[in-house]
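Form 7-S
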Amino acid sequence: MRDVAEEAGIKAGSIYNHFRGKEEIFKAVFIERHPIFRVLEILDRVSGETLEELLTNAIFQLNRELQKESGLLNLFFVELVEMNGKHIPEAIKANFPMDSRFMKQVFAMKSNMRNIREPVLVRALIGTIFANIMFGWFIGDVNSKRWGTPSEMNDVFLRGILKSQ
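Output:
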C-alpha cells in the first residue's frame, strides 16, 4: 500500500478514503486496465487491403505489442489465479465496445470468410495470440524450426488444420 500511495503522491492512509482495501484497488485497476481492452485498441489501429492481410497484420501487431507490455498479461493471470476470475465479467461489461473499427473492417470483407459470428472470431483471434505468447513463456526462446514460425502459426489460424475439401 505504501508503494501505491507513493506512486500516487499521497499518504498511505489517504488510499482508504477511496478504497476499502487491496482487493478493491486491484479490482479498479483490473477493470480499467484489463488486457482485452488494450488488445482491442491495438486491433483498431491495424489495416490491410485483404482479409488475409488484415488478420495477418493483426496477429503480428498483437504479438509485438503484448510481448512489449507483459504487465498487462500478468495482471490478467493474477486475476485468474488469485481472484478466480471474479472481476472479469464486470470488466467486460464495463468496457467491452459493442463495435470496433477492426471488426467493421473484417466484416466489410466477409465474402472471403466463413459465416462466423463476431464474438467467436474475436475470441479465436485473441485466444491464438495469448496461447502463442504463453507458449513462448513456457518454453523460453522459441525454436522456430521445431515449434513453428509466426507465419506458420498465422497460417493455421487462417486456414485451420483440416485439408480443404
